[in-house]
Amino acid sequence: xxxFLLRRVLLALATLxxxxxxxxxxxxxxxxxxxxxxxxxxxxxxxxxxxxxALGLDRPPWERYADWLARTLRFDxxxxxxxxxxxxxxxxxxxxxxxxxVLLGLGGALLLALPLALLALRFPxxxxxxxxxxxFLQSVPTFFLGVVLLYALAVHLPLLPASGFPGxxxxxxxxxxxxxxxxxxxxxxxxxxxxMARGSLLEVMGQDYIRTARAKGVPEAxxxxxxxxxxxxxxxxxxxxxxxxFLLTGAVVVEVVFALPGMGSxxxxxxEARDYPLLQGxxxxxxxxxxxxxxxxxxxxxxxxxxxxYA
Amino acid sequence: MGKRWILTLLLAFAPALAxxxxxxxxxxxxxxxxxxxxxxxxxxxxPRMLYDNVLQGLVKFNEKGEIxxxxxxxxxxxxxxxxxxxxxxxxxxxxxxxxxxxxxxVFKFNRARDPKSGHTHPEYYQDIQSxxxxxxxxxxxxxxxxxxxxxxxxxxxxxxxxxxxxxEEQKTQPIGTGPFRFVAWERGVGVRLERFEGYYEPGLxxxxxxxxxxxxxxxxQLAALRAGDIQVIGLGVSPENALVxxxxxxxxxxxxxxxxxxxxxMNNSRPPFNDLxxxxxxxxxxxxxxxxxxxxxxxxxxxxxxxxxxxxxxxxLSGYYPxxxxxxxxxxxxxxxxxxxxxxxxxxxxxxxxxxxxLGEAIAAQLAQIGVQARLEVVEWATWLSRVFxxxxxxxxxxxxxxxxxxxxxxxxxxxxxxxxxxFRALYAxxxxxxDPKRACELMREMQRLLAQDAVNVWVMNAPYIxxxxxxxxxxxxxxxxxxxxxxxxxxxx
Lengths: 311, 494
Description:
The structure holds two protein chains of two kinds. By secondary structure, chain A is mainly α. Chain A folds into two domains: about 20-75, no CATH class; about 95-305, MetI-like (MetI-like fold, Orthogonal Bundle). Chain A has helices at about 1-30, 35-40, 45-55, 60-75, 85-120, 125-140, 140-155, 170-205, 210-215, 220-250, 250-255, 265-270, 275-305. The longest helix of chain A is centred in the middle third of the chain and has 36 residues, at about 85-120. By secondary structure, chain B is an alpha+beta fold. Chain B has 13 helices and 21 strands. Chain B has helices at about 1-15, 45-50, 100-110, 150-155, 220-225, 240-245, 275-285, 290-295, 325-335, 355-370, 380-390, 420-435, 435-455; strands at about 25-30, 60, 65-70, 70-75, 85-90, 130-135, 140-145, 180-185, 190-195, 210-215, 230-235, 250-255, 260-265, 300, 345-350, 375-380, 395-400, 460, 465-470, 475, 490. Chain B starts with a helix and ends with a strand. Chains A and B meet through helix 2, helix 3, helix 5, helix 7 and helix 12 of A and helix 5 and helix 11 of B.
């Protein structure tokens, strides 16, 4: 187990270094620069030069890169060019919201998908209707779904706030603000989870031990929940890990529709402003989280499947 | 003296009018600025929230675009226009409690005229030879040569004055002398302002708090307005949404002029647009009326040169090239293009500007009708800035030029249109240097005519200003003579 963890940690560090260095290189290749993004359209060359000097952008790229690396090794992510604020602080403001949104959204998706998949398997008549509904949800663009829910539940039936996020300082309000975006996310991600759950349940239901359980006279519903669910949930967990990683920035559409200051919109702003310290910091944190998710998935595998052992 | 007495009387009775004090106003704006100091970035999002509301200069624009007193009570130019004396308002305090004096003015303009200081637009101030405090409430500017735009430039957002010595902090924590004081900038969320109790105009402002929220998505704005999360969409309401809100008794739509010329930019130094005949063909082929009616649903005003109808010395040239596809075809044929050899070029659109994008698509369709093949290419903003704006590596593009009084860009041959005209440069120099305002106005009109003659660009329309708000929001500026959502006199009725 210890050897496994050590290997994973080393691999993770290599991944982090590679990902953030690639971002630095990619930003050098893109047209546009942060000074232009700050000063705007009509900035004079003199003003450009002054700001370039102030930001240290007049130094050669490898020097800036070495600087960044040295700072990062001391756990200092530097200062955002666009916002003039420490990157760590900016991430600290955005991360809780995004994590909350992703957890609520994926949790909701799972709560929706699993029971429905079980239902679909138990009652073949429902299967067609549910599969159709899920195919529909999957094909509706997220922004459209978001706007429909927004009008339904915030404008016409004013149950929930329409947009914005007050921060976790007021947990009740924060939850109320997250509910609509999380529901949007849940509905749009439920479809793929449903199909995966349904598929793997079907596969498990064909196994010999299920036949044995049925032969013992175990009721069908119990066969599903007790004997099929656990083994069938393995691919689901892999998928959840992947989705979680993707949604850290992939929820940007939902963030825009509900005006949530999350990681996705921060990444977009950083990219538009060519704010390389911020983007590198974001990628670093994001990569770390994805590595963490993958590790959690692997460990969960060990818990759920007695055949998996880590050595 | 008499005027002041009347003003005092009016102010004394002000409470008897319908204005109500108090309340919070939440206003949606489209984008987040990079910093909050107009002298550190030319982003229009900064003055939109802060001009006059928080930050003020010696003089300012009122809602008609006239230059009126702000921190200077009055001023006087010498007959030669080389010496300008400003008499400052007394008893003014900054939001941090420090008194506002001539020292702050001297510090500001010494920084502004130093090209190495990083101040935006040092060219606005380069004719200032010296700026001196004669006493704590009198400032004297001496100019190297007369500059017709001197006062105008002092009214611009770039010329707002902060406390002496405060530069870096102004970028994120602006301190000014306006009716509202800056409270917080929540990154990615919005900017919060609060009533400044020490404001020098008694009774103002009416509101207690203002929250400018960054809401880039049109659907999110509309939903937030309908749900009551915000009371105002401050700008950029889409024409469709404006029509819908106009019909709803709970809301009203406020529209007026801006100083934005939506401009189809042509690279005058490169084929095919280095040929005057081709540029003129473009002018005849674009049906501006159809664009206003069809694309903008009636919002916007056709123009014919680089100046907006709300600005002084405006010359209406919108009919200079009437819509005439036959003439456009003939001009193209003369230039060597025809059915067998159609004119082909790339038309670069900048992604973040919705009015311009949809206009660009419609213009490409209009050009197709005379057999021109414009290949549309949508690029992201930073790419547009570096490739088109800075590198002039493009053929045709479309963008709104929002700065007021900006015809001077055509005197710069390096500007991205690459318009190189000694005659225009001579006219512009004469305009700047003449001490006679009437002559200056004549020259301004002549410059507009010359640009139209040379068909430098296709000036499509003056972009409309479209804001939407709840019915009870009163006192909103209908026009944008400078980008400013001025909330000084805004109040919540009933």
